[in-house]
Design goal:
heterodimer, A: six-stranded mixed β-sheet, B: 226 residues, elongated
């Protein structure tokens, strides 16, 4: 099951550039939360702070608190453990190109020491089913490489890979922006189904997508969270003029 | 991400609706003038305007549909287009009401002019003023002005009721004037409908500007909660 995410006084820097300033928000469990805002507003940095990816950059710095459920992300667990609990899917599908479909999905489990063949088989199948890919690849699991799949299939493979390690949170950074409309619709349907089991945070430039899949939406601007409310409110009658200017294209 | 072309299209849509609405409001004034003077040439002008209003209604709906499909508007722009679609329907109905009035005027040609104890032009003046004010609130995106239209509707309803009973009295006591009284009754009813359309337009302006649904006597505060 998903867990809620509590963010308090979060600040992030790249070198001297203060990219996130005093972010406070509660992301509810088992819902999809969309983050929108212009390029460079800090939304991707924000999700990278949730799973401690931000700190992998040597010039990056982060302060404040991020809790997922009862765990303080920066105090109670290692980055590796955090990234097992918080899966991430990126803009461009990034399957391991030389690995088979099966090995791609099993890679996280193997990294965590799982070797039992029967368990691996079960998890790979379950994860591919959850990612709505199993039916399309079930006959080629070990024959085809991840890179041989279409872009949309590769992205669902990456989602299956993330789900295989049984995370509680799924972060998605523009997961459908490189996909065609049919593949995009599949990813959106998938998000809709997955949120009953996982807490989903999706960064998107596609506001219709945010409106379709997310219960709550946050608008970032210049490193600050300007508004965070129900998606319905944000897209029909936002409370902040800056949010309205952005979503109606009166910005800039 | 400035959507210059889209916002220009919204301005064009607003301008077109205002032209249609202006014609509808003028038709009401003309129809009542035709009633007052029994001038059939004015009736013909109302007929011509009605054709133009109907054509513009279709064009405005098509423009709105295109913008919804192509531009996928959000927030205040989405509310604006929804308001335009609804106001457009009300404007067309105001035009219909003007036609209903001139049909009665044409019917009245068969009967002698009588002095009925009702003030139709005064009622028409208030109904037309409501339409004008609702349109002004639309032009200026002024929800407060739109709200003031809502409070005018009660006085028109009361006038309609007073006229209704006065004309019933005429039919009872001077049955030879029943055709004229019936026509006046229909005209008063049409003007009462015009005031209702003005109220609808004002409610749609409030929804567009503030995002509150104030229909069916919900206040702005209740609408915000709802």
């Amino acid at each position: 099951m998903g867990v809620g995410i509590e963010v308090s006084n979060l600040n992030a820097w790249y070198s001297t550039n203060h990219t996130l300033q005093d972010i406070n928000l509660h992301i509810p469990a088992n819902q999809a939360t969309a983050l929108i805002g212009p390029s460079g507003c800090g939304k991707s940095t924000f999700v990278r702070c949730i799973n401690r990816m931000h700190e992998t950059n040597p010039i990056a710095k982060v302060t404040g608190t991020v809790r997922i459920g009862d765990i303080d992300v920066y105090k109670d667990a290692s980055p590796v453990e955090i990234r097992r609990r918080i899966g991430m899917v990126f803009q461009r599908p990034n399957p391991f190109p030389t690995m088979s479909i099966y090995d791609n999905v099993a890679s996280g489990l193997r990294l965590n020491g799982f070797r039992n063949r029967r368990v691996l088989d079960e998890v790979v199948e379950r994860s591919l089913i959850q990612a709505a890919l199993f039916e399309e690849v079930k006959n080629d699991l070990k024959k085809k490489s991840g890179a041989s799949l279409s872009g949309g299939q590769q992205q669902r493979l990456c989602i299956a890979r993330a789900l295989a390690v049984d995370p509680e949170v799924l972060l998605m950074d523009e997961p459908a922006s490189a996909l065609d409309p049919v593949s995009t619709a599949k990813i959106e349907d998938l998000i809709f189904q997955l949120k009953s089991q996982y807490t989903i945070v999706i960064v998107t430039h596609n506001m219709q997508q945010a409106a379709r899949v997310a219960e709550r939406t946050g608008f970032f601007l210049n490193g600050r969270l300007v508004e965070f409310d129900s998606t319905h409110k944000i897209f029909t009658n936002p409370g902040d003029k800056r949010t309205e200017d952005y979503i109606t294209g009166r910005f800039g | 991400m400035m959507r210059v072309r889209f916002h220009k299209s919204l301005d064009d849509l607003k301008e077109k609706l205002l032209i249609a609405a202006g014609m509808a409001e003028q038709s009401i004034q003309r129809a009542v003038e035709a009633y007052r003077t029994r001038d059939l040439s004015i009736c013909d002008l109302v007929d011509r305007s009605e054709l133009a209003i109907n054509r513009m209604e279709r064009e405005i709906d098509q423009m709105s549909l295109d913008l919804l499909a192509m531009e996928q508007p959000m927030a205040i722009d989405l509310r604006f287009i929804l308001a335009v679609i609804k106001i457009n329907a009300d404007v067309e109905r105001v035009g219909d009401s003007a036609v209903n009035i001139i049909e009665r005027v044409r019917d009245l040609q068969a009967y002698p002019v009588v002095d009925l104890p009702v003030d139709i032009p005064r009622m028409a003046g208030i109904a037309a003023a409501m339409v004008r004010k609702a349109l002004q609130s639309f032009i200026e995106a002024d929800a407060k002005m739109a709200e003031s239209v809502l409070s005018m509707d009660d006085s028109v309803d009361k006038m309609n009721e007073t006229i209704h009973y006065a004309l019933l009295n005429v039919m009872r006591e001077q049955p030879q004037y029943t055709p004229q009284a019936l026509d006046a009754l229909v005209i008063a009813r049409s003007l009462e409908r015009v005031a209702d359309h003005a109220t609808n337009i004002a409610e749609d302006v409030i929804f567009w500007v503030q995002g509150f649904d104030v229909r069916h006597h919900l206040s702005m505060i209740d609408g915000a909660r709802g």
